[in-house]
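[audit] Reproducing an earlier prediction to check determinism. Same input, same settings, fresh worker. If the tokens differ from the archived copy the diff job will pick it up downstream; this log only records the rerun itself.
[audit] input (146 residues):
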Amino acid sequence: MKSTQLISKLPYQEPFLFVKSIDEVSDDSIKGNYTFKSSSWFYKGHFKNNPITPGVILTECAAQIGLASFGLYLLSQEENLDLDQVKLAMTSTDVEFLKPVLPGENVSVEAKKEYFRFNKLKVSVRMSNRSGDLVLSGELAGVILP
């Protein structure tokens, strides 16, 4: 499945789509990226005169790439499954924020499968900025209901 096909199957759209591309995907891992637009709604007021990307948005970006996109890819290996009918839900997060992400900054997300069974996916996830500095690290889990 190509990057654009995978992204088109996600249940998100602007302004809440935080996946620009899927750069690599296999049965064990996924890599993708996103650039946070300086004009995004969440920068207004977070923080006054010093905007940074909210942690909940960073977590969402990591989940859209590392959990939702990855889960859809894994499910796409099954026959006779309509990916347009799949429902996604995040069930747990345990992440640390290590550096701020500024407006206009590009991030790269890499997730590695810890397990995928009974339609539950758990991944270890890392988000880095363009300089290669780690900005988020942790684990995410979710259920994928065909």
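[audit] rerun output stored. Observation attached for the diff report: Residues 55-76 form the longest helix (22 residues).
[audit] end
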